[in-house]
Amino acid sequence: MTEPEAITLEPCEPGRLTAEDLRSLFLFEKLTDEQLTWIAEHGCTQRVAGGGLVLREGDPAEQFFVLLTGTVALTRRVGQDDVQTVRTEQRGVYMGATTAYLRDDGVPQRYMASMRALSDSEFFTLSAADFGWLMREWFPMAIHLLEGLTLGMRSSQAVIGERQRLQALGALSAGLMHELNNPAAAASRATGALRQRVAGMRMKLGKLAAGKVAPDRLMQLLELQEEVIERAAKAPSLTAMQTADREDELGDWMDEHGVTGGWDVAPVFAQGGIDVDCLTEIQDRLASPELLDQAIHWIGYALETEQLMSDIEDATGRVSSLVNAAKQYSHVDRSAHQWIDVHTGLDSTLVMLAHKIGDGIRVVKDYDRTLPQIPVHPAELNQVWTNLIDNAVQAMSGAGTLTIRTYQEDERVVVSVGDSGPGVPDEIKKRVFEPFFTTKPVGEGTGLGLDISYRIVVNGHGGDLSLQSAPGDTRFLVRLPLSEPASA
């Protein structure tokens, strides 16, 4: 088992900051001289070299940190990867035991993230016990409010987040099952029809043999059958109107030449791309009016068998592509962090949401296929595409144009998800990324989708998520860096 990385903080140096020094930090600027003096006496400064680990996710939350100098990054562990959630060099930002003032209810508090110094950094630190004491003693009313807000938000997010995940999973599962059902049912129907056609071919072969067909004629018939099938495989596709005209021509020819049930056989030949000239060639090759009827039916069975096998191949291929899209979407058995082509995730998300998009919405994909691969967490990014596409579909109420565009802008890849809906009013634009804010009716939205997307793009990938909206043209623009954030 790998030993955990050591914490590299240098020993604490008490008394380095005065009350006036502390007042220059925005967190303490409104405190009294007496309060600042108490904090200066109970706190100390600590340093860590660039690249060093300051605190580790999951360890007991024993210290409250205020950044004085340097650049730090907070990360959360996801599977085998560390996902960067915050990167900052702002003097005075705080982290660590930030909720030490909450009643513990018997549950020990632990660091919710790891913090690493990206450059040589210095912190002012207080013990969790001292920070918790001063907050409860100096700001009792604020603590009651903060406790209610923190614990309430924690409970609400847990319940609503779980329900949202279940609803999203249910919607995706229903859509996937709907998409899978169509090709599966088509394959099942084709298999049943194929069984009947194979049985018919066996009976027809028996009749040919019983009719005392000469061996050389039978071999000729088999060769003719293979030639017709090969010709059908190479025949150009016909429009519905052309196919209907071809069926009429073939049916008339068969009636004129005494082929029984010609109007039942003609559609098979027409679908296979066979024309009247081919039938005439079959007649000339056979040189036997008595054999023509049975030969036409036997070749028809062979053609229909090939068509049914093609239908089964297409249906099973569709099932396979859907399963592959689902795997791409969920990134099963893959590490969280990868260099990927952004279009792969967009395409798999569109497949997963095809049932929800429906026939009334036209999907336009304006992709720049020359874009380089980018470093992302694919499963998280697919959640962003799901939220943005789902919002666009709902905004259009089942009718309109969904436009997915990709392009490069400076050192970033940009993904634009646009819709032709009514647009977002100006007074709402500033609030769309706020948690729990939604314009949907009660029970139809949690208001977390865009907030989660924003945090994934901005905090998790160092990118940017913005909104541009006008009636008939609303776009969410996701900007993702071409390279990983540099670290010391």
TrEMBL record:
Name the SMART domains for this protein: cNMP (SM00100), HATPase_c (SM00387)
Q: What range(s) does the Histidine kinase domain occupy?
A: 304-484
**Keywords, ordered alphabetically:** Kinase, Transferase, Two-component regulatory system
The chain positions of domain Cyclic nucleotide-binding read: 27-135
Task: Note the PROSITE patterns from the entry.
Answer: CNMP_BINDING_3, HIS_KIN
Catalyzed reactions per annotation: ATP + protein L-histidine = ADP + protein N-phospho-L-histidine
Q: What is this protein called?
A: histidine kinase
User: Which species is this UniProt entry from?
Assistant: Actinoplanes awajinensis subsp. mycoplanecinus
Lineage runs:
Bacteria, Bacillati, Actinomycetota, Actinomycetes, Micromonosporales
